[in-house]
Amino acid sequence: MVKNRRQRLSGNIVDLHARRIYPGTVEWADGRIVRLQAEEGKSYSHYIAPGLVDAHIHIESSLLPPAEFARWAVCHGTVATVSDPHEIANVLGVAGVNYMIRDGARTPFKFNFGAPSCVPATTFETAGARLGVTAVTRLLARRDIKFLSEVMNFPGVLARDPALMAMISAAQQAGKKIDGHAPGLRGKMAARYADAGITTDHECFTLPEALAKLAAGMKILIREGSAARNLAALVSLLKTHPEQVMFCCDDLHPDLLMQRHLDEHVRRALQSGADRFDVLRAASVNPVEHYGLEVGLLRVGDAADFMVFTGWKNLRVRRTYLRGKLVALEGRSRLSRQPSPRPNKFKATARKPADFVVPARSPIKAKTHPALQVIEAINGQLITRHRSEIPSMINGMVVTDLKRDILKIAVVNRYKTQAPIALGFIHGFGLKAGALASSVAHDSHNVVAVGVDDVALCAAINLVLKSRGGISVVGRGESSVLPLPIAGLMSGLDGRTVARRYTQLDRQAKRLGSKLDAPFMTLSFMALLVIPDLKMSDRGLFSARRWAFTPVLAQ
């Protein structure tokens, strides 16, 4: 076998371990760095640094399969991800996890997938699969499974649920890290959660919460994605706890992936005044060392995984190398496009407008109106608030109220042909006409929709059902759908096409009145029961704080 010839690249070498920058040359052969040579008296305008690592992301939320995601992530200096295949696992089970691993392995990009710990996330929703202790333990025994994915059932951890604790024990015995997901936990509860073996959390919305979890022994992943954006609130941790911080996107829709990835975290952190070495360590060294990833960090003997950039506060990635191969140059990917298979599980059939009627169920008395329990969506956050409103009534039916921005929300079970539809009401979407629908609905990925009336709601949902998965907009004489034939979560089209069509749908939603930055991303989290407070599953309105269903109309 003929070995590859040595390759060289000169520039300002960023040594994150020694915390120094010096002019020099990187030499590599057979995908590994063989020499780092300092050069006295040289001057360069560009820098060579370890590639970026997203410490927690659901690839499915990009609406792209792994091989296609990789094509665009490398343009931003990203060389690896710590990826939770929880979304596809809720639809297809272990077969979905295997699909993600196989698809990702077709590229040099370094995907690191975990074993989903909560499929389904709760017992209060219908998913397409169930991963019990045996299935998760078998996954953790595999070399290509790197960690136990986010343990979202934090009440179960606090109660030391035997099944959850068995999964955590299996990860510990396999020498693999355990990711957390515990929005709002502090004090003794945070300590108890961490004591169970949880090592990270990416759900902190405020600095006090992050400090409480750091005190409990967890590392904090600063998230900046499409729906949840917490960097501004948490960036000061880079000055106080630099070794305990990593960066992640969690969920990133295709329109933003075309523009940015972790390079944006780095830019913003540098602009905040954080130390440049601490920022780049959070984006590379910290996740590699925490998870034990096989990702190079620009040392002799390491894989040649690095990026070339110019500027600091206005950092721009110019080149990305993976295993010594140039995979992106000046914002253009050099990875080839590879069509992916399209596994799916979609049984739901078309509905009619009458299916979305909400009866009052009790007569309205003059002085004792029933309280309408309303979900309040919050722009840029996954959490929701609980509002109590006087319902608008027509002919004994509860209806939407556009003046108060109280719209109807529906969740349709995708795994059965004609299951009962869960109906409720929501504030914050701002639609003045039409409806939005999506089969990307964390975590069980039933079809979630928000609309101003039953006709529009039904039409948007039926577009998704007909496509066996997708996102849609209906209103003011227009109707559009982006089909997602891969598990009802991902498209088989190239990334730029998906991003363009997604952007068109986003614009249509905003023309209908939505003021949300990312209406479809926000919509996808309205069925995520483990994030407080009110959410909607296919079985009804649910309160995460009470950890129980709650009536839409309460006396």
Explain this structure to me?
By secondary structure, the protein is of the alpha+beta class. Helices cover 26% and strands 28% of the residues. It has two domains: 246 residues, Metal-dependent hydrolases (TIM Barrel, Alpha-Beta Barrel), CATH 3.20.20.140; 202 residues, no CATH class. The protein is built from 16 helices and 31 strands. The strands form six sheets. Strands 18, 19, 22, 23, 24, 25, 26, 27 and 31 form a nine-stranded mixed β-sheet that branches. The protein has an eight-stranded mixed β-sheet with strand order 3-2-1-4-13-14-15-16, with helices on one face. A five-stranded parallel β-sheet has the order 5-6-7-8-9, sandwiched between helices. The model has no long low-confidence stretch (mean pLDDT 95).
